[in-house]
Amino acid sequence: MSRKKLLPPGESLLHPITSAVEPIDLAELFPLEQPLELELGCGDGSFTLQYALANPDRNIVALERLLGRITKLDRKGHRAGLKNLRLLRAEAAYVLEYLLPPELLDVIHVYFPDPWPKKRHHKNRLISKPFPPLVKRLLREGGIVYLRTDNVEYFEQMIEVFGGAEGFEPVETPEPMKQLVTDFEQEFNAQGIATQYAAHRKIGG
Question: Which of 63, 91, 145, 147 is packed most tightly, with the most Cβ within 10 A?
């Protein structure tokens, strides 16, 4: 069902955040009402573009803090003619906690978040104890969080964090999704560094 007119050519895919407290109904950003997914920290956007092109029946919101990266993805998204992609420029943790209404999302993607490898910096990691309750509030029943990292120690922390969280069960990452890789991921895979995958589904309301 059509919700809004299609995005005019040349108009930015980047949705401006005009309030620090008013929730953003991400579904209202799209011309069609369909399953809604959020990518936190889309980086160079290489996964984002592939995924949006491969899944025209799903709406994807990609979030990135760095202006250069989000601007580049905006240009590429327009050139690809994507109607199912919108962009936000903001800090992921803040958006999750303050700017999204509950039970809005079907999927959340978090790929290669900053590992903050020094022990004294671990407190800055996105995937830590406060993370599962935040995403649980935002996911619909049966919604899934997909995680990837090349850092084995951080991956172990991700598994521990979700293993100790209420309302989630581990599931497999679909093989077709694994085939969509970032440019950065291709580089370290070529060096023999494996990608670590995890996925967790919301259960029990």
Answer: 145
